[in-house]
Amino acid sequence: MMRFALTLLFTFTFALLSSSPVFSDLILAKVDRRIDLTSQIVRITTSLKVENAGSNPASEILLSFPENQAKHLAYLTVTLNEGKGKGKASSGAGLPVEVVVPKDVPNSLTFYYVSLPKGLGKGESLLLDVLAVFTHSLEPFPEKISQADIQLLLFQDTAHYLSPYKVTVQSLTVKLPEARVESYTKLEGTKLSGSELKYGPFHNIPPFSYLPIIIHFENNQPFAVAEELVREIEISHWGNVQVTEHYNLFHGGAKSKGEFSRLDYQARPYVRGASAFRRLVARLPPRAHSVYYRDEIGNISTSSLWGDSKKTELEIEPRYPLFGGWKTAFTIGYGLPLRDFLFELDGKRFLNFSFGSPINELVIDTLIVKVVLPEGSKVISASAPFPVKQRKESKFSHLDLVGRPVVVLEKNNVVPEHNEYFQVYYKFNSLSMLREPLMLIFGFFSLFVACIVYMHADLSISKSSASYLAKVQWEEVQATVQQIHNIISNCLTAHDKLEASLRDLSRTGDVQACKATRKSVDSLLKGVSKDLKPLVAFLQSSPQAAHILPKVEELIAKERDLQERLMAKHTTVVDCYEKKLGGREIENRIAPNQQKITALRQEVDDLMDFIDEI
Amino acid sequence: MAPKAITSPVPDSLYPTLSVLTLAIGLVLTASFFIYEATTSRKTRSLAQELTTGAVASVFLGFGSLFLLLACGVYV
């Protein structure tokens, strides 16, 4: 009833207004309005043919909406229709539209100025397409329904196009979701054919004319409304854009009253619970990976995902079907390859991403988009094709020192038409990417430094206790034995060189090279005995080395023996070659020596291993 | 001038391979560091060798753990 009173009030106001001053000399020659009521979002497409009947060229056109409609207006775009005929879609981006409040009109109207790129000259005409999208404009009537009732909605609008200009010819078509209409305002020439309701055509209507119509119809489309949606888009320069979306959904249609019978719903879902919705379809960008769907309890497994090269489709089913007024909350997350969304131009990098939610036909009351940029990003700015509220925040994430800068864009009343691309610009030095591995490297290095410090530090309390002194002496013995071990290894390497030279001799017959090798090895081995003397002396003097000393002396003696025999063998073989004796002869001569050499070598190796392990 | 798409400096598909390789080398160097610590006595130890082995090992371990994190999906 309140509604009817309001509409009557509007009619009177506009009757008064029609006598107010004319805004300009433009005339709307032909107006075709199509109101699309097939989903919870009301879309009104108006094609205007504007004629300049006055003498001054016009550069702006005014559009007006009544106040109660204007506060639900989510999206308004005006495009120039260049084609002749109805089939051609309008090309190019929309014309700039601005809200304005002219001085001498009451507050019950909201005006929008559309600036034309080139002025409309005298006598010229222009075709414009206006798309206006409204949310929460369908009122459930009755407001509360039980599970078995059908959902009926009320839509109020005007049959005459509300405009500050005179309209010569206009018509109105209303598209309904089903052929079932409870009631509608019947005017002259109103026709209902199937699911389309046609009003008009009306001729020569004065400006600001408002003829209220009310349509009461059934609509079982899903009324998914998100109270709040927080979309977090985190960019990592190592190759991934991670999107996390937190939804708080409710069913925005007629509220459910009475009991919910699961049995009735499962048995006949289209009769008991026709207005409830069970699944939502989200259209994600192609090449989305690692998609998850969970809520506070945990993972929700009722979902399916399939993708091709143009899109990835995710179909999700909440844990229960949503009836009027019921709520649910969940989180969807997915990763996207970086190269599809991050670009570089003129030294600045920018992220090109879609603003709205990927879920089809979702109305969002408050949408918050947070873009998390990598640490070290500077000179950050964001630009969107429609007005949004911006602010900056900071977030601490993996391997962060000072936090990552976050750009927060907030918008109210968002519809799927807002799924356009927005950009976030920033500057980033590529070398800053090295900060993360450097942090890890520094962490590991500090572990190694701690280890070194521990090994070098002398943490004993008393420096003169017997056990401390014993430990120190033992370490000295160890060091000496190690040095002896190293020297003996060098000797053994020299022996190996000798043997190798003998083999070379048998292959190439080069006696001179062999002799040269022997000379060098000779000098090496001479120095060895000199080095060994002080070390052995120290071992003899140290009490701790008592059990090692015999073995060490044995090792040195054996090594000396081995050395002599090897030198003898070498000399013999070289002599034989010089005398050009046969292979058999050589073998005979060195045979006794060779056996001993092999045996000695084995013993020396064993002793070396033993010494190594103390 | 058309905008150029930005990708990561190392191709994505190489992350697991790189992480295994660098971690293996890093662990081998760590092992050699600890063997050196265990077998030498206080006198014969050289600080320069310890520090270089530790530094090279930590470089490989650092990159290895970074690529390991990236290969597991934690895009740091």
TrEMBL record, chain A:
Highest taxon of the lineage: Eukaryota
Keyword Signal: yes
Keywords, ordered alphabetically: Endoplasmic reticulum, Membrane, Signal, Transmembrane, Transmembrane helix
Pathway: Protein modification; protein glycosylation
Name the UniProt record assigns to this protein: Dolichyl-diphosphooligosaccharide--protein glycosyltransferase subunit 1
Cross-referenced InterPro entries: Ribophorin_I
Keyword Cytoplasm: no
Endpoints of the signal sequence: 1-24
Subunit structure comment from the entry: Component of the oligosaccharyltransferase (OST) complex.
PANTHER family, A to Z: DOLICHYL-DIPHOSPHOOLIGOSACCHARIDE--PROTEIN GLYCOSYLTRANSFERASE SUBUNIT 1 (PTHR21049:SF0), RIBOPHORIN I (PTHR21049)
Location relative to the cell: Endoplasmic reticulum membrane
A Pfam family this chain is assigned to: Ribophorin_I
Function, in words: Subunit of the oligosaccharyl transferase (OST) complex that catalyzes the initial transfer of a defined glycan (Glc(3)Man(9)GlcNAc(2) in eukaryotes) from the lipid carrier dolichol-pyrophosphate to an asparagine residue within an Asn-X-Ser/Thr consensus motif in nascent polypeptide chains, the first step in protein N-glycosylation. N-glycosylation occurs cotranslationally and the complex associates with the Sec61 complex at the channel-forming translocon complex that mediates protein translocation across the endoplasmic reticulum (ER). All subunits are required for a maximal enzyme activity.
Membrane topology value: Single-pass type I membrane protein
Family, as annotated: Belongs to the OST1 family.
Spans through the membrane: 438-457
UniProtKB/TrEMBL annotation, chain B:
Signal peptide: none
Location relative to the cell: Membrane
Domain of life: Eukaryota
Pfam families for this protein: Ost5 (PF05251)
Principal subcellular localization: membrane
UniProtKB keywords: Membrane, Transmembrane, Transmembrane helix
Transmembrane regions: 20-39, 51-71
Membrane topology according to the record: Multi-pass membrane protein
Assembly: Component of the oligosaccharyltransferase (OST) complex.
Family, as annotated: Belongs to the OST5 family.
Task of the protein: Subunit of the oligosaccharyl transferase (OST) complex that catalyzes the initial transfer of a defined glycan (Glc(3)Man(9)GlcNAc(2) in eukaryotes) from the lipid carrier dolichol-pyrophosphate to an asparagine residue within an Asn-X-Ser/Thr consensus motif in nascent polypeptide chains, the first step in protein N-glycosylation. N-glycosylation occurs cotranslationally and the complex associates with the Sec61 complex at the channel-forming translocon complex that mediates protein translocation across the endoplasmic reticulum (ER). All subunits are required for a maximal enzyme activity.
Protein name: Dolichyl-diphosphooligosaccharide-protein glycosyltransferase subunit OST5
Native source organism of the sequence: Stylosanthes scabra
